[in-house]
Amino acid sequence: MRSLPQADPGMPDVRGPLRYLWWNARRQLPSLLGGIGFATVWWLVQALVPAVIGKGVDAVTAEDARALVLWSLALLGLGLVQAYTGIMRHRLAVYNWLAAAYRTVQVTARQAARLGATLPKRLSTGEVVSVGNSDIAHIGNSMDILLRGTGSVVAIVTVTVILISTSLPLGLMVLVGVPLMAVAVGPLLRPLHRRQKAQRDLTGELSTRAADIVAGLRVLRGIGGERVFADRYREESQRVRHAGVSVAGVESLLEGAQILLPGVLIAAVTGVGASFAIGGQISTGQLVAFYGYAVFLIGPMRTLTEAADKLTKGHVAARRVVRILAMEPEVSGGTGTSGGGVLRDTFSGVTLQPGTLTAVAAAAPEDAIAIADRLGRYTAGDVTFGAADLAELPIEEVRSRILVADNGARLFTGRLRDELDVRGEASDDEVRAALRAACAEDIVEALPDGLEARVAEGGREFSGGQQQRLRLARALVADPEVLILVEPTSAVDAHSEARIADRLTGARAGRTTLVCTTSPLVLDRTDHVIYVEDGRVLAEGTHRELLESSPAYAATVTRGED
Predict the structure, then answer these.
(1) Chain centroid to CA 348
(2) Which residues are paired to 357 by β-bridges?
(3) How many Cα atoms are found within 13 Å in the side-chain-facing hemisphere of 37?
(4) 552, 554, 533, 531: which is closest to 541 by C-alpha?
(5) Of 89, 109, 262, 426, whose CA is between 20 and 30 Å from 131?
């Protein structure tokens, strides 16, 4: 099997699900056309088999041994061609399925990386997960069915022509009967489409609920809310089940129509053909051929109804994918450059001097988060970096030079060392220095394999404080030009917090660092403290100076205590 094609550099036309499916088809046009060719020949060979068998029966009736041998050899040849084309058709069908499905994964993953922080604000986790769970299968199926569906149309036309040339009444029965069956199935497609969409929406919501419960299971058990959320999950899962049963009801009618309608046509063609054979209008071999054609037509016609079902599901799935691809990031970059220097948020007045350890203490935590997001270019704002506007710099450059590390960052599955050194450029000494600065050496020492240990999904084997220290170590290993830490010690004990505050100064010496916190232990060890109230700078100075000069600051960091 050939290797799967890489995702194209350009984004697909996302004006609609049909355009997305067409874009996918164009990306794999050679293999798609090749598969259609093999599928067409495969069906045509099968369509010719009844005719050859009929000729063989006539040869037996006429006691013509030479003709019987010739038609037997022809049947053998058709069997060999059918075997070869069937293998190639299936091979290319699988290839096209995989190509369409995993191209969808590639473009969706690229778009997710492009959207960054915008994606979780617009879509739930379950909605995104469902693309990889089910939507890619439906999109792959829609490409797969094009092969057999196109070939089945050609086969039906061929059989109809053969029947008309042999017996006009029988040919007209097939010619009229097939479109009638397609019309009869049509009314089932719209409710099927609607119910599949409803089931898909409910499945996405259920996936989101499951992700929330798994992520917060420890907290739920602590507050006794495990049973409450389990009951909610059970209720939602039952709604998904009922939606699935509703879809299955329409699909069962569709499946039944695939058997009933062709069966009626076969019975009619066979009955009329038998009467013609008795009347001497057709030979015995032609009657056998007509019956063979009638039975053969079940396959192509079932394929057509299957195509209608899979294309409908593919359309629903493509709509979900298009919804993601149509999104635009909340912020975009330019083509400018910056030599670095002072980083300033004009709206709040927060200014970070190069090479200093600065702290922002906000009366409302959300104000500090908003400032960090603007300084890191995660939300739009009037921010300057040296002499340049931050909005004029390419997003890639901003991300490489300014790192915002908050408690929403995740630990991923894999080797712990790779988790800490995500770029793979740090030495062992640098990793150990970052672990020491984050007061996380004891975490690694307690693991049997140390830095070679495997981290479980979301780092669930670590406590909240341990996860926070490991995230801090990861940020320090990255060693960005500007590091913005949002409440980096909120989940650790006071002793560890004091040590982290002491070591952070040395670890970030000569680098610009901002810590958003209201912890007196951390604030007392920074070079400069900025107090923010209602989103604006209210006071500046050292921690001890502000305790004396700003009652609002003192009340915030001491929480009203003396």
Answers:
(1) 38
(2) 513
(3) 7
(4) 531
(5) 89
First to last CA, the chain: 74
498 Cα distance to chain centroid: 43
Q: How far apart are CA 72 and CA 83, in angstroms?
A: 17
Neighbours of 277 (CB within 10 A): 17
DSSP state of 526: S
Residue 210, both tokens? 């499951």
Q: Which residue type sits at 301?
A: M
- Chain centroid, CA 83 distance in Å: 37
Per-residue pLDDT tens over the stretch 1-25: 344 444 444 567 667 888 888 888 8
Give the number of residues written for the chain: 562
For the record, the structure tokens of 177 come out as 């009967």
Query: Contacts by 229-237 with C-beta closer than 8 Å and gap 24+?
Result: 233/206, 233/209, 236/202, 236/205, 236/206, 236/209, 237/206
- 378 close to 117: Cβ distance less than 8 angstroms: yes
CA-to-CA distance for 118 and 181, rounded, in angstroms? 48
Residue 388, C-beta contacts closer than 8 angstroms, at least 6 positions apart: 336, 337, 338
Angle at 323 between CA 320 and CA 326, to 5 degrees: 150
Nearest C-alpha neighbor of 465 from the set 434, 516, 500, 431: 500
CB 364 within 8 A of CB 521: no
pTM (2 d.p.): 0.67
- Lowest-confidence segment of 53-57, 237-241, 287-291 by average pLDDT: 287-291
Q: What percent of the chain has pLDDT over 70?
A: 91
pLDDT in tens, 453-470: 998 877 888 988 999 999
Distance, CA of 308 to CA of 185 (rounded, Å) = 9
pLDDT band for position 356 (50/70/90)?
A: very high
The pLDDT assigned to 130 comes to 73
